[in-house]
Amino acid sequence: MIYQSFIRIGTFLLLVGLLTNYALASSDSLQSILEQIRTEAAKTQDVTTEVEIKQAGLRELTVIKAFVLAPDLARYEFLAPQSLVGQINIEEGETSITYLPVTNQAIVEEGIESEVGGGLFAALDTDFANYLPDDKFSFELGPVENSDMGAARSLYATLKNPTGKIVRLELVYLEASWTPLRLTGFDSSGKELASAKFLSWETNTGLKAEALRALPEGAEIIR
To answer: For residues 34 and 156, is the Cβ–Cβ distance under 8 A?
Structure first.
């Protein structure tokens, strides 16, 4: 009986040790992946990307060409659907400009959270020097995925103080280069609100702020 008790205790301690080591390893893996993603982001001054966006409740996909210049300037040019072709959204700090080609007007708003991409891009900052900060998000490591370009890692980022409907993000990165492949936003109930698939990704092409702020000739500014 005493011998069997020692066996049970030994088995229990071994199990606890294995679980503890697994938890530590998982934590180390999460931190390692975050560090690699942040390191690559810190090298980035600007991004040019074509994005395919799917939003809950909308049948048609939205396709935009996005130009992002750190720390807080972004330009979104709409390529699809046909009803949005030619529209331009410019976001800089708390200023939002929406250009409507039908009326050749640019509507300027202050303190309005961007709804481009269903709010996905507002939830994810463009300050690459402070990318995915710990004071804004809590993180969990997702599974390994297989993409056409190789292994990819998913990361779950939950906003600590959400200001919009999106409270949780799933980010998928190509493991070989930590280039983003996909971004998905969820509400507090876990419902998917919007997802973005990055069709292309170029960095440090020398984007200029004045070019990103430019509006079509003759555009009427409305404040």
So the answer is: no
